[in-house]
Write a structure and sequence with these properties.
341 residues, alpha/beta, Peroxisomal Thiolase, Chain A, domain 1, 2 domains, four-stranded mixed sheet, 9 helices, ACP_syn_III_C, Thiolase-like, 3-oxoacyl-ACP synthase, acyltransferase, 3-oxoacyl-[acyl-carrier-protein] synthase activity
């Protein structure tokens, strides 16, 4: 049973934050922001760019590209952030209503910035096991830059957070753009290293902790996390890519493109070099920053627009999310071809 991508949608706010603005807010040298952090500019949410609304705009584009009536959609999965219009709210049901998917049912999933990979894996599994699910809409939005305090140097590695929405339409019995196997790793030793410390049941919101800015992201042990995470993260990036390719029946030498999240340039280059790939085999998102779980969809869309992907190419989308989670999924673009031996 073949599951393929028939529609892609991305929404990006027009409002931008430049490297110069980040440098001024964070009291950092401009060269550090541009070169080490790899940020030229990033989209940030304007007053109407709410999390789920951005997912809706991306979803409408994906459905239009797919060329199907919304009533053909059987399932809507929201894979965007929990930071959205309302704190207790099933976003997938709102998306279902707004796009006109009146014959679908909907739910939300969450794995931080790894959720897009999880959503593709989960959608494929559901389509393989439930014959009533033939067409699935995946949609998500992200604007976690709202949680960044640029004066908090403990969160410096998250100064790249931006805003946007992304969506995919998947179809069963597809003949092109086939989705193969995914691999996911989670490591709970990092589960409380990056948190918003208030607003949950442990520390409810109070006027005092709001005034002190505790509603923003913080890192409880920045040096300890860096020491424990740095090499492990790169190793896990490589591992999930290799395992996804292997489970899909492809060789590493067949890999043509890697759609990566935005991270520091040295790490991005390391991943490419490991697989014998060059700069043109990926897109470094220096003009977009890190839009959470939207990065892989954005990278795929940009690569198609820039003709970096051609029919028959094998590509891998790879992600990482605080918690910590790593994930990768293999796709062969274009008309169906036989899987390699």
């Amino acid at each position: 049973m073949n599951i393929g991508i028939i529609g892609i949608g991305v929404y990006l706010p027009t409002k931008r934050m430049t490297a110069e603005e980040i440098a001024n807010k964070a009291n950092l040298p401009l060269d550090v922001v541009k070169t080490k952090m790899g940020i030229i500019e990033k989209p940030i949410a304007d007053k109407d760019d709410h999390t789920v609304q951005m997912a809706i705009w991306a979803a409408k584009e994906a459905i239009q590209q797919a060329g199907i009536p919304p009533k053909e959609i059987d399932l809507v999965i929201y894979f965007g952030e929990e930071h959205k219009e309302y704190p207790l709210w099933t976003a997938g049901i709102k998306i279902q209503e707004e796009v006109g998917a009146t014959n679908a049912w909907a739910f939300d999933i969450q794995l931080r910035c790894g959720t897009a990979i999880l959503a593709m894996k989960l959608a494929k599994s559901l389509m393989q096991t439930d014959e009533s699910i033939r067409t699935v809409l995946l949609a998500g939005g992200y604007r976690n830059h709202d949680f960044i305090d640029y004066e908090n140097e403990r969160t410096r590695f998250m100064f790249n957070l931006g805003a946007g929405g992304g969506a995919l339409v998947l179809k069963r019995d597809a003949t092109e753009n086939l989705i193969y196997e995914a691999d996911l790793i989670t490591d709970g030793t990092f589960s409380e290293d990056v948190v918003v410390p208030i607003g949950g049941t442990k520390e409810p919101l109070t006027p005092e902790n709001l005034m002190q800015g505790y509603y923003r992201l913080d890192v409880t042990d920045p040096e300890g996390m860096k020491t424990r995470l740095e090499q492990k993260s790169l190793d896990n990036f490589i591992k999930v890519i290799r395992t996804s390719l292997n489970k899909s029946g492809f060789h590493e030498k067949e890999l043509s493109y890697i759609g990566m999240l935005h991270m520091k340039k040295s790490a991005h280059d390391f991943v490419l070099k490991t697989f014998g790939l060059k700069e043109e085999n990926s897109i470094y998102l220096s003009n977009y920053g890190h839009i959470g779980q939207i990065d892989q969809i954005l990278s795929l869309k940009l690569a198609l627009e820039q003709e970096k992907i051609k029919d028959g190419d094998v590509l891998v989308l790879v992600s990482a999310g605080i918690g910590y989670a790593w994930g990768a999924i293999t796709i062969q673009w274009g008309p169906q071809k036989e899987v390699a031996g």
